[in-house]
Design a protein that fits this description.
5-stranded mixed sheet; 7% helix; Tachylectin-2, Chain A; 2 helices; 320 residues; single chain
């Protein structure tokens, strides 16, 4: 009887619509309260048990604070006003997709400034002793791209590997790239090789927003595939590949290179949680946590904060 019931359940699942199957394949985000609206979140657990801060696209790098990773408050912006050089890249001084990290006794906030549909873009950096909004000192550009380049200098993500500091970045324009940074200045080393980590086989090469996390002997590259920023019509999803070298080559579970369109699906839209992407990874009490945004189908497609703990399977691959 158990065998018959199991077979019947399998047939029933196979006949369900794809959306229903997806809903059973991915966990919902951790429940959060307070200020949930966010886009392209980067989160860090503050030193000394002082809670959590999240920064995001929107405003002059929008800021949120939480004591428990559940209830979040709106704390304004990282900066009181845009640094003047931002206006070289868009008319409103609008920054995108920040990345926060901590090293050498300071918090480092990387971010991008650009305009929609162009790779005339720049990545900048600021530092703070506390990581809190209103305490950041801007240090200007660390890496740029122009319309003659085959990459786009937005969506930065910083990682340390083998005693060196690296920054992955990229959006469309042949996908995800990486350069080495000078750990003293936080800027790209002059003349540094621009490594190629991931792309799609066909234009517009819809992959962006990288995040890299080390686990065991591998580095894992997470990236957002397909389209964001269209509310409930967004098709963002998060895919992953891994490599024993931070500069690649990265391959997915099937062995397909991420430079050939590979990428194992980690999280896709399901139920009310649509267009999952804009991700980052942070450490909390020794565990890796995925932060991302989704578009809430029950709230007219409003972008909101998603958080899920990462579980590392026996084969070394991440699951949520």
């Amino acid at each position: 009887m158990r065998t018959v019931l199991a077979a019947a359940a399998a047939v029933t699942l196979a006949l369900l619509p794809n959306t229903a199957q997806a809903a059973q394949s991915y966990p919902d985000p951790q429940p959060v309260t307070g200020q949930q609206i966010i886009h392209d979140p980067t989160v860090i657990a503050l030193k000394g048990g002082k809670g959590y801060v999240a920064y995001s696209t929107g405003g002059v790098i929008g800021a949120r604070l939480s004591k428990d990773r559940v209830h979040w408050t709106d704390e304004g912006n990282a900066f009181a006003a845009p640094p003047s050089w931002w206006y070289e890249y868009n008319a409103t001084g609008d920054p995108w997709a920040p990345d926060i990290s901590y090293r050498d006794g300071r918090y480092w906030l990387y971010y991008a400034v650009s305009s929609w549909g162009t790779n005339h873009s720049a990545i900048g950096v600021a530092t703070s002793s506390s990581g809190l909004p209103g305490t950041w000192t801007d240090h200007g550009k660390v890496f740029t791209s122009e319309t003659t380049d085959t990459w786009n200098a937005i969506d930065p993500a910083v990682v340390r590997a083998d005693g060196k500091l690296w920054m992955s970045f990229g959006s469309y324009w042949t996908g995800i790239r990486m350069v080495q940074l000078d750990p003293r200045t936080g800027r790209a080393i002059p003349g540094a090789t621009v490594h190629h980590l991931a792309t799609r086989p066909d234009a517009p090469y819809a992959v962006e927003g990288p995040a890299i996390v080390q686990h065991g002997r591998h580095y894992y590259l997470l990236a957002s595939y397909d389209a964001c920023c269209s509310g409930v019509n967004s098709t963002y999803k998060i895919r992953v590949g891994r490599s024993t070298s931070v500069t690649g080559p990265y391959t997915d579970k099937d062995g397909t290179s991420l430079l050939e369109g590979g990428g194992s699906l980690l999280l896709a839209g399901h139920g009310r949680f649509l267009g999952t992407g804009g991700e980052s990874v942070f450490k909390d009490k020794g565990r890796d946590v995925l932060a991302y945004h989704y578009y809430d189908a029950d709230d007219e497609g409003t972008p909101k904060l998603g958080l899920n703990d990462i579980r590392w399977a026996k084969d070394g691959w991440p699951a949520l």
